[in-house]
Amino acid sequence: MPRAFVIDSNFFISVSRTRFEGALEDLINWSKESGAGLHTGVRVCEEIRTVPNYGTKATMVELVERHFKVHNVAAEKIIALQRLIGVSAAPQDTDLSLMALCAELTAQGNQTTLVTDDFKITKTAPKIPQHFEVISPSVFLLQVSNESEGNRRARMRDAHRKVRRFEIEYMLARRDIYDAQPKLDWLIDSMIGSLSTAANQAVAPPPERAPVPQVPDSAPGEELDDVQALDYPDAALSGVMQFGATGTGSIGAVSVGIAEALIETALGLFVAIPAVWFYNYLSNRLEYFNVEMDNSSSELVDYFIKKTAAA
């Protein structure tokens, strides 16, 4: 079954915020080699038009319009989906357009996945008859790294870690707006599910494909040796290779990789939570000093006014 990945704007924003060079180019090359389709919407292109792309001279929206299938979802489909989900529970129009696109791709016989960090979509997607999976940007990069080899695998794994850190920090920064615990559970469950799925699938040699043109990793004359030199161990992928070689195995083959991911998540929270607490504490102290200075200045001005009037 052909695979189709529908990418939300927050994926491109997350990758850009990490300043990771060449991540989008690596993703495009992986798509061409694996045969997986990359899709997005016209509304998404408008939202990322000013989002910078690091590592190449091409802007992010230029690469998307050149190498992604950009769809213009009709307003009637968005309205119909909004009525199906319920107006009060429905996400924003851009998200609804991507959900309608996922439903259409699924109806066409694709195994469809929506890549977004919008937790509201995960709660409303099951109401749509045409099933599609919803994963976060960091989990998507983890899946891509598991299907890649060599230098690209190391680069995509590094991008996955940077984006995951950004997702956690952004979620904690908005903890006063919504309860962060359900979204954190979803991120962890999705990551574990991605590792388990990769481990339980039989690893078969990829079919022979005609050579495809590669998107350059960087502009002419630019080198990315400092990033390309990173080579992180991937215990989960080793477990997948063991399954492929023997045809048997257990959860122990991937438990090391899962444990590594959970430990890194815990360490990220260990650093992020105190940082946010200290930031709020210092912000409140600064606001307190500002109020005190305003009061003192007002009292001083009143004093001089009274002295002048008495004289």
Structural write-up:
This protein has 311 residues and is of the alpha/beta class. The protein has one domain. Helix content is 63%, strand content 7%. The chain is built from 13 helices and five strands. A five-stranded parallel β-sheet has the order 3-2-1-4-5, with helices on both faces. Helix 7 links the parallel strand 4 and strand 5. The N and C termini lie far apart (93 Å). The relative contact order is 0.11. About 7% of the residues have low confidence.
Describe the structure concisely:
The chain has 311 residues and is α/β, with parallel strands linked by helices.
Task: Give the helices and strands, then pairings.
Layout: E1 3-7, H1 9-17, H2 23-34, E2 37-41, H3 42-47, H4 60-67, E3 69-71, H5 75-85, H6 93-107, E4 111-115, H7 119-124, E5 133-135, H8 137-146, H9 150-173, H10 180-200, H11 225-228, H12 235-246, H13 252-310
Q: Please indicate the count of domains.
A: 1
- Spatial separation of the terminal alpha carbons: 93 Å
Question: If strands are numbered along the chain, what order do they take across the biggest sheet?
Answer: 3-2-1-4-5
Query: What are the segments in which pLDDT stays under 50 over at least 5 consecutive residues?
Result: 217-237
- Gyration radius (Cα, Å) is 24 Å
Instruction: Sum up the overall morphology in one term.
Output: elongated
Keywords:
311 residues, alpha/beta, 13 helices, 5 strands
